[in-house]
Design brief:
single chain, about 80 residues, mainly alpha, Arc Repressor Mutant, subunit A, 4 helices, about 70% helix, globular
Length: about 80
């Protein structure tokens, strides 16, 4: 039960941290890492190249980690 509550808290922290990101980074990170969509599918949806999607996700994850601070370390415990 505590693992479920912990996961919900982490998801909420991710949602809050994503709000401060540029829209396109937020979309790319959400589609790739939350929805689990393929890079090619995201590229088509966003009208970007696959390379651009990789860059958006990289930047988005870096901003997410910075925004979440120590909370970001909890994300590796969810899997």
């Amino acid at each position: 039960m505590s693992r479920v509550l912990g996961a919900k808290e982490v998801v909420h922290a991710i949602q809050v941290a994503l709000v401060s990101q540029p829209e396109v980074c937020r979309q790319a990170v959400w589609m790739r890492h939350i929805e689990g969509r393929a890079v090619g599918e995201i590229a088509a949806a966003l009208g970007r190249t696959e390379r651009a999607v990789h860059q958006l996700c990289y930047r988005g994850l870096a901003m997410l980690e910075e925004a979440m601070g120590p909370t970001s370390r909890c994300m590796t415990d969810l899997g």
